[in-house]
Amino acid sequence: MELDDIYLDQQEHVEKTLDSLRRDFITIRSGAVSTSILDNVKVDYYGTPTALNQVATVLASDATTINVSPWEKNLLKDVERAIAEANIGVNPNNNGESIQLYFPPMTSEQRSKNAKQAKVMGDKSKVSMRNIRKDANDKIKKLEKDKEITEDESKQAHDEVQKITDGGVSSIETLVKAKEAELLKI
């Protein structure tokens, strides 16, 4: 394995971590309600955990209401249970045809709680960054041990790995700050 391969592999993992963080942030509610708050909800569809939007139509009918209409009526109870278990902050209302989720306007307390949740997600992503750095550094140490690179090349490679890690951590901090600002803005 070449050093450039190690850098590319590390950069790829950094991008995946950032994409994952962005997806996680979508599930945190800010001002108006978004159907993406249900993205992680899985429904038992004939024994297989299936994404909610694969078995139902999910629409935000206004700024505080989401309507979930299962494509098969026999799934209504399963969808209702999956939403209730997802613990998204509201109770599902089943009218026999579809499920309505009524989200009250967010209080400042909820906004700060969600901002803290965003920070925790950011911290988890930073842990991932450190693990990615460790993997890259381990590969470099192995190359040095196997005499495929010199000690100087190893030192330069560790510095490059640290630069990539610092860039990833900086991106995480930027994303977290932006999300916190969005969440705390009324």
Write the layout of secondary structure elements.
Blueprint: H1 3-26, E1 42-45, E2 48-51, E3 56-62, E4 65-70, H2 76-86, E5 93-94, E6 99-102, H3 108-145, H4 151-184
Antiparallel strand pairs: 1-2, 3-4, 4-6, 5-6
* Alpha carbon gyration radius: 22 Å
The coarse silhouette is elongated
List the domain count as a whole number: 2
Mean residue pLDDT: 90
Kindly report the name of the CATH homologous superfamily of the largest domain.
Answer: Ribosome-recycling factor
Compressed to H and E, one letter per element, the order equals HEEEEHEEHH
Number of H- or I-type helical stretches? 4
The structure class reads alpha+beta
The CATH topology of the largest domain is Topoisomerase I, Chain A, domain 4
Detailed description of the structure:
There is one protein chain. The protein has helices at 3-26, 76-86, 108-145, 151-184, and strands spanning 42-45, 48-51, 56-62, 65-70, 93-94, 99-102. Helix 1 runs antiparallel to helix 3 (108-145). A hairpin with a 4-residue loop joins strand 5 (93-94) and strand 6. It folds into two domains: 3-26 and 107-184, Ribosome-recycling factor (Topoisomerase I, Chain A, domain 4), CATH 1.10.132.20; 35-102, Gyrase A, domain 2. It is an alpha+beta fold.
